[in-house]
Amino acid sequence: MAYKFVDNYREKGARKQLVDILKKKGIDDESVLKAIGKVPRHYFFDETFWNQAYKDIAFPIGEGQTISQPYTVAYQTQLLHIKKGNKVLEIGTGSGYQACILMELGAKVYTIERQEKLYERTVQVLPYMGYKAHFFLGDGSKGIPEHAPYDKIIVTAGAPMVPEELLRQLAIGGILVIPVGDAETQKMVTILKTAENDYERHVLDTFRFVPLVGDRAW
Ligand code: SAM
Fold it and tell me: Cβ distance 74 to 32 under 8 Å?
């Protein structure tokens, strides 16, 4: 794929419209909307598909994977309640778009992807765009214990259950956001770690993600 990095009035206008669509769908965290309005989502698409970049849809990025629907990105991000300086682990780097949204909110991002081609692309493209994350290649279903604890953990693929390791790697007061279910649909689950072995769990709306594949996953 040939990537081009030009952000002109057409893309900026389309981004504003996307923000309006997300507001209408119930996203009300102003900082999240601002981040969506700022990150050029078309940079994650081949130029041929730029006209798809600001539709509220998931889109193929190769290797059988997708860049998540903007609504889903905004929904998960909103649930994380990111504060400037938060250390965030993202499982499923994919295109790198979600990582950029987290960085716009001031997070320090540790992101892991199991598909080598996607990993190699984000390692090059994100710094080129001016976003500096810590990139890892491998199975993120067990988290990244070497860098734990994390203030927030976001899983961007559908898991069959909540991996114990992720709960362990969460700081006290930290939040884990993870879609859990079967291969077809998943419920968004948020887990707040209130004490070392104490968690507050909420089960929210239904989504459809690509599967989390790994030792503690499918
Ligand atoms: N956050 C991504 C974005 O902004 O484009 C969305 C990515 S896509 C919906 C989910 C990603 O999770 C895929 O790229 C997939 O390869 C990756 N994935 C699945 N299982 C994984 C695992 N065990 N460890 C790391 N990445 C995984």
Answer: yes
The domains found in the chain, sorted by start residue, are 58-207 (3.40.50.150)
Phi and psi angles of residue 174, each rounded to the nearest 5 degrees, phi first: -80, 165
**pLDDT tens per residue across span 94-119:** 999 999 999 999 999 999 999 999 99
Cis peptide bond prior to 149, omega within 30° of 0 = yes
Per-residue pLDDT tens over the stretch 10-47: 999 999 999 999 999 999 999 999 999 999 999 999 99
Q: Which pLDDT score, from 0 to 100, does residue 4 have?
A: 79
Pocket test for ligand 1, best of 75, 117, 213 (most atoms within 8 A of CB): 213
DSSP 158-172: BBSS--HHHHHTEEE
Take residue 60 and report the two structure tokens written for it.
């193929």
State the DSSP code for 53.
Answer: T
68 has catalytic annotation? yes
pLDDT 10s digits, 153-190: 999 999 999 999 999 999 999 999 999 999 999 999 99
What is the rounded radius of gyration, in angstroms, for the C-alpha atoms of the chain?
16
**Which residues, at least 6 apart from 86, have a Cβ–Cβ distance to it below 8 Å?**
80, 106, 107, 108, 151, 152
The alpha carbon of 6 and the centre of ligand 1 are apart by a number of angstroms equal to 26
Distance between CA atoms of 47 and 112, rounded to whole angstroms?
26
DSSP 210: P
